[in-house]
Specification:
The protein has eleven helices and twelve strands. With 349 residues, it is an alpha/beta fold. The chain has two domains: 4-54 and 90-274, Aldolase class I (TIM Barrel, Alpha-Beta Barrel), CATH 3.20.20.70; 283-348, Type Iii Antifreeze Protein Isoform Hplc 12, CATH 3.90.1210. Keywords: Transferase.
């Protein structure tokens, strides 16, 4: 499967995981705070900064009919109408250029999740370098198709999608001649619980669709993202806020800056630790070979004297013959006089 280039960053199995900080509505309708979140993501070591491009009218109706009121999804959303929720959550279009520019200045890729065809057209006008399709939008073929038609990387969260849904969305992207596809394993609960995350799906997705696969992680803490990295996730996405205490639609399941920095460090450590299939001492271990056991002379031995358990032993350090040769050594005469503390070698017998 091919690596993907996103704003100069390479996404692939041999690379450190590409870590995306999702701002969502954590800017609290303040551009100053939005730019502070960009800076916090950069300081934490994230390579990607993602926002959301929508308006409430793009998403739903202004209605409080029962179908349009949130029940049982997240305590911070409870009782709000969808329209009310999206009014507090959306990022004003006029902020996009400033946010993307700050991300570029800080060495990150700024991009967005569009929530309508018109959102993609707007994002094209400001040079958005990639598109993320949210889980709640992954059943909308027209949106996926338009994102794929840009020829830019398309990252799709797979929350709630069954295999038929997944095949459909993958075929739509590839049907437009776009091979720059990333699927993110996602559990669409806020927050998500580790036992509902099913990370073993990650290598299965990669095998099924021969594309880069990652994790959109709504769990608390770093453990699930680190485990996903070990299973081959090449992208990790996490929500970021300046402080959970500030509240907001996504604040309760977002990471704070210090936590995000820890996540970046731990995921990169995990990827480095994977290494390759390797047996025997590594170059870094060679000095430690001295601390293994080997066969040593522990009493002076005269020429011709037979070696026994009294005059040789298996001890540290490791400069003598290896311990498994002890049965072949015992009972042999010494070719020369041996001194206590000598590492035993074949030339001595």
């Amino acid at each position: 499967m091919q690596d993907i280039l996103l704003g100069g960053h390479r996404i692939g199995a041999s690379q450190p995981p590409f870590i995306i900080a999702e701002m969502s509505g954590n800017h609290g309708q303040s551009l100053e705070r939005a730019l502070a979140i960009v800076d916090a993501a950069a300081d934490a070591g994230c390579q990607g900064l993602k926002i959301q491009t929508s308006t409430p009218d793009m998403l739903t109706l202004d209605s409080r009919e029962p179908d349009f009121v949130v029940r049982g999804a997240n305590q911070d959303w409870e009782g709000q109408s969808l329209y009310e929720l999206y009014t507090t959550n959306f990022t004003p279009f006029e902020w996009h250029a400033a946010i993307f520019e700050r991300a570029r200045e800080r060495g990150m890729v700024g991009f967005s999740s569009p929530f309508g065809i018109e959102a993609i057209e707007f994002l094209e006008s400001v040079g958005c370098p990639a598109y993320k399709i949210a889980s709640f939008e992954n059943n909308w073929p027209d949106l996926i198709r338009r994102a794929a038609q840009t020829g830019k990387p398309v990252i799709i969260s797979t929350g709630m999608a069954d295999l038929a849904d997944l095949e459909r969305m993958v075929n739509i992207v590839r049907g437009e001649g776009n091979e720059q596809l990333v699927l993110l394993k996602c559990t669409s609960t806020y927050p998500a619980e580790p036992h509902n995350t099913n990370l073993r799906t990650i290598p299965h997705l990669r095998e099924l669709f021969d594309c880069q696969v990652g994790l959109s992680d709504h769990t608390m803490g770093t453990g699930v993202s680190v485990a996903a990295t070990v299973l081959g996730a090449s992208v990790i996405e996490k929500h970021l806020t300046l402080s959970r205490a500030d509240g907001g639609p996504d604040g309760s399941f977002s990471m704070e800056p210090a936590e995000m920095a820890h996540l970046v460090h731990e995921c990169r450590q995990a990827q480095q630790a994977l290494g390759a299939v390797y047996y025997g001492p590594t170059a870094a271990e060679r000095k430690s070979l001295a601390f293994r056991r080997s066969i040593y002379v522990v009493q002076d031995v005269a020429i011709g004297e037979v070696l026994t358990l009294e005059n040789v032993r298996v001890i540290r350090p490791g400069y003598g013959l290896p311990p498994h040769l002890l049965p072949q050594v015992l009972g042999r005469p010494a070719r020369r006089a041996l001194r206590r503390g000598m590492a035993l070698t074949w030339e001595m017998l």
